[in-house]
Amino acid sequence: MTTQPKESIVLLIHCKDRKGIVARVSGFIHDFGGNILDSDHHTDEESNDFLMRMECATEGLQIASDEIASAFAPIAKVFEMRYEFHLTSRRQRVAMMVSKQDHCLADLLQRHRRDELHIDIPIIISNHETCASWADLFKIPFAVHPVSKETKSQQERQVVALLKEHRVELVVMARYMQILSADFLAQVGCPVINIHHSFLPAFIGANPYRQAYDRGVKIIGATAHYATQDLDEGPIIEQDVFRIGHRDTVEDLVRKGRDLEEIVLARAVRRHIEHRVLVYGRKTVVFD
């Protein structure tokens, strides 16, 4: 029998490091009768950035969950914090974007059905019909918007409109083999997570497994990162590697790479929706 986790609130904080931050934040939770379930923080000594994730139970909390952010504002002002409060019971609306390769999409859809990913998927968007059968199987609307060099701007406007119509809070590029323009990323209004089939920054571009094979690599990797206008250079959320032997062919590398891409992307999505990732500059802190 699976025990349902208790509802909790996650607080994310980013500011410059100063004495007393942890004490003031903990004291705030205590003053409203809250019980801290988990707390972690990190200070980047080079930049003096302070980043924190604190989770507390809603049970016994003597303030309404929708009032807690405004109540915290005076403390945030003192420390010049950027902060967010999130209810863990709330399911985020996540759109999937995919082209022809279906392995990452299929993996995420199955994890969603098992409720390993506490999300709603209102729409799957593609530039091809190839993955429509997965949408049919899981009874999720599937929208096809073909794209060419000549129609890219128009197609992106259509996709942005569709994402906004469905009130999407996160976009996952589950092997969507198109480069998103700076205009698209500026207009989409939510984070975009991409899976890259190599261990960035190595083997960027086309045919990374052929590049890796030709170099005789001993490991291959996959990288999940937030998409930015700088191609494949967004803040990294998750990475992992497999060892490669001299008997492995290019096809073996591709097969092993697919397995790795599924795992790395799923981890990145889960850490994002659990509010475990804080971005600062070109880097991230990912709290366990």
Topology:
Layout: E1 8-16, H1 21-31, E2 35-44, E3 49-57, H2 68-79, E4 82-87, E5 92-98, H3 103-113, E6 119-120, E7 124-126, H4 132-138, E8 142-144, H5 152-165, E9 170-173, H6 182-187, E10 192-196, H7 208-214, E11 219-226, E12 236-243, H8 250-273, E13 277-280, E14 283-286
Parallel strand pairs: 5-6, 5-7, 5-9, 7-8, 9-10
Antiparallel strand pairs: 1-3, 1-4, 2-3, 10-11, 11-12, 13-14
Verbal overview:
The protein folds into two domains: 8-87, Alpha-Beta Plaits (2-Layer Sandwich), CATH 3.30.70.260; 92-286, Formyl transferase, N-terminal domain (Rossmann fold), CATH 3.40.50. It contains eight helices and 14 strands. The longest helix is centred in the C-terminal third of the chain and has 24 residues, at 250-273. By secondary structure, it is an alpha/beta fold. Strands 5, 6, 7, 8, 9, 10, 11 and 12 form an eight-stranded mixed β-sheet that branches. Strands 2-3-1-4 form a four-stranded antiparallel β-sheet, with helices on one face. A two-stranded antiparallel ribbon has the order 13-14. Helix 3 (103-113) packs parallel to helix 8 (250-273). Helix 4 (132-138) links the parallel strand 7 (124-126) and strand 8.
Q: Enumerate the spans where pLDDT stays under 50 for 5 or more consecutive residues.
A: none
Roughly what is the average pLDDT, rounded to an integer? Answer: 93
User: Per CATH, which architecture of the largest domain?
Assistant: 3-Layer(aba) Sandwich
Number of helices: 8
List keywords for this structure.
single chain; 288 residues; alpha/beta; Rossmann fold; 8-stranded mixed β-sheet; 4-stranded antiparallel β-sheet; globular
